[in-house]
């Protein structure tokens, strides 16, 4: 892996999320490309709202003029991004995207190995829940795997693969493994929540075990009966400092474990990094 994207609104960059972004870059010997989205063609937020958002991100601006405010935030946040990368020994590159945020991100993802985004990223006038509509659209449309950034990063304990026997969940596991061969010595936990209507066969589970043991040195399997949504939440909420891997995220349905989109409540409640890939 060589090119990782870090997506942010020019008005608000959360410096805490750069800890994990730079960790991944150092791990994979990749550069970090900051995608600064300005939303010039569709900005609906007022100068007052943008000023409040900037203040939440640690930038105290004096103006409520939208153009002037964005320019100041852009300059300050680009400098913060560059300083953070330099401090952590990462090559940081900046792309200033001036169009429609979702279209810009999808185009950028077409030519990248991995995309990183904060689940709270939003360009909406209204207050939004996490993950925001913009983030769920990115998850559905991105043309490379996406990682939802953790609120803070203090090290990595285990890798958690969620598995339901479908091709798309296996695809996500394989994508993660190919992108992060450096994590082969980390302990792996595979979580399967079994529902009567959708159970991986014993043969499928054996083949996954065989494949995983070819790539990881320490693999454990947890199989539970019950509801997928509540079972996953119960399992994942108890975890700390783990990297969670999930399958395809779509607008209409999660085509792997989650129907329709059980990942949304999980992303609301857990503070771990979450890797999501779709075919």
Automatic annotation (TrEMBL):
Q: Show the Gene3D superfamilies listed in the entry.
A: 3.40.50.12370
Q: Which organism is it from?
A: Chitinophaga filiformis (Myxococcus filiformis)
What name does this protein carry? Universal stress protein
